[in-house]
């Protein structure tokens, strides 16, 4: 049985920088190495898909060469951490962890360690010695392009000086308090991208149907600010 070392997860978020992940945990199953995930695409539900390849190619307690994937399971409405079956295809991956309470159908990226509960799938891991329990800040880390809370009506993450108004809005939504914006995206409640354009302090939303949306502002220095708004 291999000694388990802490494995880190780090996501870099930006529409203009490569999104990556690094994970640290499950000490009795994974090798003593960090794994760098890369965003490889977006699924049919507009959720990001991240896959990693082994750093040194060593075997991983029967998990082939320790290749991993983080992806959304729409049937079960949850994010999952998967291990390749050993052939590099992810045709029949093994479930290592799943988030049981911190999932958000609205956001395209997975929850952090401190939001919700990342549950160890002991049905599989016990055959390899077990991971030591659910992921927590004491035995693992997960940082970067992950959400750490549910959406609020105001700013989800970012500078509180930045404001959007009016809210609710009928035609034109305005953005104040930002001078280095680069692009904006608007997502509907199903997590689908419905509008994307270069940053402007006035965004025309008249073509959107009535409902709740997420406005994501990307800056030139790779920061993101997210706001929930209501289209009348």
TrEMBL record:
Transmembrane segments: none annotated. InterPro entries: Secre_tail. Residues 1-17 form the signal peptide. Keywords: Signal. Pfam families: Por_Secre_tail (PF18962). Residues 164-225 form the Secretion system C-terminal sorting domain. This is Secretion system C-terminal sorting domain-containing protein.
């Amino acid at each position: 049985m291999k000694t388990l070392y802490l494995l880190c997860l780090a996501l870099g978020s930006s529409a203009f920088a490569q999104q990556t992940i690094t994970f640290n945990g499950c000490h009795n199953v994974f090798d003593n190495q960090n794994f760098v995930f890369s965003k490889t695409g977006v699924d049919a539900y507009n959720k990001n898909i991240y896959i990693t390849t082994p750093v040194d190619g060593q075997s991983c307690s029967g998990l082939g060469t320790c290749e991993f994937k983080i992806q959304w399971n729409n049937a079960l409405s949850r994010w999952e951490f998967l291990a390749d079956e050993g052939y590099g295809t992810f045709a029949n991956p093994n479930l290592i962890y799943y988030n049981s309470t911190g999932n958000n159908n609205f956001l395209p990226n997975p929850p952090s360690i401190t939001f919700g509960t990342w549950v160890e799938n002991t049905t599989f891991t016990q055959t390899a010695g077990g991971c030591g329990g659910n992921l927590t800040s004491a035995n693992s880390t997960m940082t970067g392009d992950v959400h750490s809370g549910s959406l609020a009506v105001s700013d989800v993450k970012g500078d509180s000086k930045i404001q959007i108004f009016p809210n609710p809005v009928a035609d034109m939504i305005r953005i104040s308090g930002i001078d280095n914006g680069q692009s904006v995206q608007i997502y509907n409640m199903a997590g689908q991208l419905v509008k994307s354009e270069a940053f402007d302090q006035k965004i025309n939303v008249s073509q959107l149907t009535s409902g709740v949306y997420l406005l994501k502002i990307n800056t030139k220095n790779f920061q993101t600010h997210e706001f929930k708004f209501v289209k009348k």
